[in-house]
Design a protein that fits this description.
This protein is 26% helix and 24% strand. It has helices at residues 116-127, 170-182, 188-196, 207-212, 237-249, 279-295, 318-326, 352-369, and strands at 4-6, 15-19, 25-28, 42-46, 53-57, 75-77, 84-85, 87-91, 94-99, 105-109, 133-139, 145-151, 156-162, 197-202, 253-260, 267-269, 329-336. A hairpin with a 2-residue loop joins β8 (87-91) and β9. The N and C termini lie far apart (65 Å). GO terms for molecular function: carboxypeptidase activity.
Length: 374
């Protein structure tokens, strides 16, 4: 049987240079459209059942985050349900993946993909739940719908949104876990949250980049998380639609869910450098992080991004822009593409299942600070 590599499917991304037998497969990663960003890969290998395979992905010294490759292990699946990690090494700009598939179809990815089809299944499922509304905020540049899920009857306005950077697929796995909990009528945390707040949830802010197999940008090659100062219909309609809805509802709490290529931990980035920061905002930020760290061993506060000094925040980024505009608690949650080093999992590393569990735990932490938001 002929060995072949393909990526002509939802979120697929790979360039095939050479397939000269199972031990000599050379690939590279296609850049985001109209952008120099590249890091996300997702491809299928066929015809190599029960053979030792060596795959080399070259040119990664020019990738978006070269520090993301050391100690990284590629994700692999034969049923596209269970994603595990396989032997991977990195040197001199080349990622080398070694694997022995059991069948003639095996998928490799930078992280377990979250397809647009699964997104539509998620939206369809939650739309059937009592008290849940789904609306389309508008269309993307590729003509896809930008979905908003709303639920809850309380006075506080809570915004959760994910995948501004489409290659950070763990963010929508997080969303699936959060929505499953919020829609569970037997969950006391969910019942209380829905009594206290109205939730506005955008599970995928970048459908075009997700389907195209981008790492960081939309169909125009624009990084949406640098558009929150002045989004436009031509460059960033996704941000424009969400921000206009935020202005209509107000925001008391906002969580922007992401993934980080290099740091092998879950952590929260705040808004410490915004011009109008208040002691109340800072207190809520520290309180939420402390509560989440107590709830789950998969969250920590020692490792993360450098904190911006006073007045130096980048107001084009959503967390800073939302905290500044609405005077609320706004945060960026980062999850790893690698493993969570404090509690490693040899089989799966950081995984969809753990991302979903963290989504549920983040809601439990929110309940503990909810009464302090106003």
């Amino acid at each position: 049987m002929t060995i072949a590599v393909s990526a002509a499917f939802d979120s697929g991304n790979i360039v095939v240079h050479r397939v000269d037998g199972p031990q000599d497969i050379e690939l590279s990663i296609r850049k985001d459209h109209q952008s120099d960003f590249f890091q996300w890969f997702h491809f299928r290998l066929t015809g190599a059942a029960d053979q030792d395979v060596t795959i080399r992905i070259v040119g990664l010294d020019a990738s978006a985050y070269p520090l993301g490759w050391p100690n990284y292990r590629a994700c692999v699946s034969e049923d596209r349900i269970l994603w595990t990690r396989t032997e991977t090494s990195y040197a001199n700009g080349t990622l080398t993946i070694r694997h022995r598939p059991h069948s003639n179809g095996v998928w490799f990815a930078y992280f377990a993909p979250y397809s647009m089809e699964r997104h539509h299944d998620l939206i369809a499922e939650v739309a059937q739940e009592p008290g849940v509304d789904v609306e389309v905020l508008g269309q993307t540049l590729d003509g896809q719908d930008l979905d908003l899920v709303t639920l809850g009857e309380g006075e506080r306005n809570v915004w959760l949104y994910a995948r501004q950077h489409p290659g950070e697929s763990m963010a929508e796995w997080w969303m699936e876990g959060a929505l499953e909990r919020l829609c569970d009528p037997s969950d006391p945390v969910a019942r209380r949250l829905r009594q206290k707040a109205r939730f506005y949830i955008v599970p995928n802010m970048n459908p075009d980049g997700s389907r195209r197999g981008h790492l960081r940008t939309n169909a125009a090659g624009v990084n949406l998380n640098r558009e929150w100062h002045e989004p436009t219909p031509e460059r960033s309609p996704e941000v424009l639609h969400v921000l206009e809805k935020m202005k209509a509802t107000g925001v008391d709490f906002a969580l922007d869910v992401h993934g980080d290529e290099a740091i092998p931990h879950n952590f929260i980035a705040g808004f410490e450098g915004i011009p109008s920061i208040t002691d109340k905002q800072l207190g809520l930020l520290h309180r939420y992080k402390q509560v989440l760290e107590r709830i789950t061993p998969d969250f920590q506060t020692e490792k993360g991004y450098e904190v911006a000094s006073a007045g130096t925040a980048n107001l084009t980024m959503s967390t800073n822009a939302v905290a500044e505009r609405f005077g609320c608690l706004a945060m960026t949650l980062e999850m790893p593409f690698k493993d969570e080093d404090n509690h490693p999992d040899e089989l799966q590393g950081w995984s969809p299942e753990r991302a979903k569990a963290l989504g549920r735990d983040c809601l439990a932490a929110l309940l503990e600070v909810m009464d302090e938001l106003r």
